[in-house]
Amino acid sequence: MKSKITVVGIGPGGEGDMTSRAIEALQNAGIVVGYNYYIPFISHLLKGDVEIVENGMKQEQKRIEKAVEIAEEGRDVCVISSGDSGIYGMAPLVYEMLKEKEVDAEVEVIPGISAFQKAASLLGVPVGHDFCVISLSDLMTPWAIIERRIKAAVDADFVTAVYNPKSTGRYWELYRLKELFLQGRSPETPVGYVRQAGRDQEEVRVTTLRDFDSEDVDMFTVVIIGNSQSYQWKKSIITPRGYYRNETKDDERPGQSIMVESFRTIEKELVNPDIPIGNKWPLLHAIHTTADFDMENILRVDDNAVERIYTALTEGKVRTIITDVTMAASGIRKGAIERLGIEVKCYLNDPATTQLSKEKGITRTQAGIRLAAKEHPDALYVFGNAPTALMELCTLIRHKKAGPCGIVAAPVGFVHVCESKHMVKPFVGIPKIIVEGRKGGSNLAATLVNSILCWPDAEQLKPGRDV
User: What would the pLDDT profile of 33-55 be if each residue is shown by its tens digit?
Assistant: First the structure.
């Protein structure tokens, strides 16, 4: 009959966190092999005549060699491992050594509650969605590989549990981990850490990624970093599973639900998701329309521009939006303008525009803006096609013939496009949204207007009310 090696996960420390199978295995063990720090946690469960083989830290290989020797002698042996023996525990080493030494012994692995599971239970529900566990110990894994795994965890938006975060000889690795997470995750991301989980010296703390101080951590601490959806509630960390978020409310149409989910996806992929909401809101609309993340580099939004323009259109006397071309006008949501009582006008096809264009030798878009400024000097002016029209408005402003409540400058093309956008920048008193460089277009101009018209939905990040 084969000898048997039973590898028991004893959990994080207390008997209350051990499984009944683990307790039974310890009570029936004749020989126990383990780290001397952990033996006191289970000694009360052992028989009086049990043989105990123990040694100190960093002598894992010698412990398992002894256990295998006992098995080779034909005797059963129980190997204890904290937490779960298969997670940074003794079970892998047992299997590796049996294979290396070609020992024909039976192995039973009894699972246990891992330290990160115990820590998570004390922190609330930080591991409510996809997660990974990373050890910062470089004793057997090169740091270059560990850092690559950290970056992958950040990029994949995993909730991340950190084992072996710090020791007497290792102090900078946890600083580096925080640095890497801050490159791809909000400084407000909740971070929880538990020292001596399940033991008498237990300490539980919740903070943010920004305020997390690695000096508070030692080798007996497990750190859990939330994902982009995690948040603090009271003294707990919650990582939502998604049940509530995915429900479609009675007043939420299917098209809006898709748009909401799209915005969440875009936000996760932003290089800098922590910009003010007044800048982020039009940016999300711009990327949603164009699928072009370069918008993060070229969309320029004046401070409080969206809020100021929205207030002018809804609380002031301005009730008109002027566009350079009809395509830009057609992209502005009809439901929004009807809800807010706003009129959208384009003078491009007005007979008077054609006549003025011929008389003055200017483009029709220029002529249309000139006529619009006479009737609606304080309107919101929107440009998605014609740089000459934007240049015309700048001239009218300089001559005090127009005073728009706001400007959306997104003409597209190669001639005079960049210059027209530079021309509008000096008007510091007028709130502006500008798409820098050659990029732009009527669809982009329209979506930027739509972001203004649904400004009250920005804080909830819930676009598409009028879809």
Answer: 999 999 999 999 999 999 999 99
Residue 12 contacts residue 113 (beta carbons within 8 Å): yes
Residue type, 195: R
Query: CA–CA separation, 9 vs 204, rounded Å?
Result: 23
* Amino acid at position 390, single letter: L
**Distances from the Cα of 220 to the Cα of 19, 40, 167, 168, 196, angstroms:** 22, 16, 9, 12, 6
How many other CB atoms are there within 10 angstroms of residue 341's CB atom? 9
User: How many residues does this entry show for the chain?
Assistant: 467
**Looking up tokens 């000694």, which residue turns up?**
43
* Overall average pLDDT of the 14-19 stretch: 90
- Cα 348–352–355 angle (5° rounding)? 100
Distance CA 237, CA 252 (A): 28
- Predicted pLDDT of residue 244: 57
Phi, psi of 139 (to 5 degrees): -65, -40
Contact partners, residue 267, CB within 8 Å, separation at least 6: 228, 273, 280, 284, 461
Q: How many CA atoms lie within 13 A of 341 on its CB side?
A: 8
Catalytic residue among 44, 129, 285, 288: 288
- Contacts of residue 244, defined as CB under 8 A and 6 or more positions apart, other chains included, come to none
Q: Could you tell me the pTM of the whole model?
A: 0.58
Considering just the CA atoms, what is the radius of gyration of the chain in Å? 32
288 is catalytic: yes
